[in-house]
Amino acid sequence: MFDLKLSAVAFSRRAVLNLAASAAVAGLLVSMLPGSAIAQRQKGPAEVPVEELMKPGVLADVSLGPADAKVTVVEYASLTCPHCAHFTNQVFPDFRKKYIDTGKVHYIFRGFALNPLDQAAQMLVQCLGGEKRLSMIEVFFAKQADWAATSGNPVPKLFDLAKQAGFTQESFDACLKDQKLLDNLEADRKHASETFGISSTPTFFINGKRLQETPTIEAFDKVIEPLLK
User: Is-above-0.70 flag for pTM?
Assistant: First the structure.
C-alpha cells in the first residue's frame, strides 16, 4: 500500500512546477516506494454510503462500462503509486475483459495525488478530457519507472509521454500552470480523504464496500460474483 500523510503537503501552482522540475523529486519518490512488501490491509470505513460515493466530484470521473450495471467499482489511485501501477498493468486487463467489457461492472477511476509530481501528472490527464484520459493513465502507469522514479529531472519524461497524447510544449506548460484545475483536483482529493477515509492507494469500493484484500482478480471475484447472482 502506498501511504502518505498529506496534511503537510501544500499544493499550489508553484509547488507543482518547482517540485516537478526538481531532480530531488526522484529521490523523494524512490524513498517512498514500498519495495516488495505485500500491500497492507486498508484503513478507513469498511463501507460507505453508495449515494454519497456516486456523487460527482468537482471534476468529471474517468469511467468505463454501463452506468446501470449491477456492480460499480470505484478506484482511488495515485499515478506515482507502484501498487496502483501493478494493478493497472497486471490485473486490470483481465478485470476489464471479465467484468467491464461484458457489461457486468461500471468502473470509475478517481485520482488521489500523493505528492506534487503526482498532482502534475493528474493535471495532464484532466487536460486531455474525454476517452483519452484513461489511455493517458495507462501510459503513465506502464512507464511509471521512467518518470516517477527517474534520477534526473522528471519534467522532460512527462512531456515525452504527454506528446504521445497530443500535447505541445505550449499546451503542456499551460496545463501545469492552471491553478483552478489544481485547486479542483485538491478539492476532490480532500473530499475523498475526509468523507471516505482514504489515506492510501489503491483503494477500491465495490457497491460501497471497501475491498480489504490485495486487489487480485481472485479478490474481486469473491466480492463481485455474489452480487451478480
Answer: yes
Cβ–Cβ under 8 Å, residues 120 and 202 = no
The answer to whether residue 3 sits within a structural domain is no
Can you give the CATH number for the domain in which 126 is found?
A: 3.40.30.10
Q: How many domains is the chain built from? A: 1
User: Which one-letter DSSP state was computed for residue 229?
Assistant: -
* Residue at 9 is within a domain: no
Task: Tell me the three cell numbers of residue 146.
Answer: 521512467
pLDDT in tens, 65-120: 999 999 999 999 999 999 999 999 999 999 999 999 999 999 999 999 989 999 99
**CA dist., res. 82 & res. 30, Å (int):** 10
Distance CA 77, CA 133 (A): 14
Within a domain: residue 215? yes
C-alpha cell at 163: 506528446
Which residues have a Cβ under 8 Å from the Cβ of 218 and sit 6 or more positions away? none
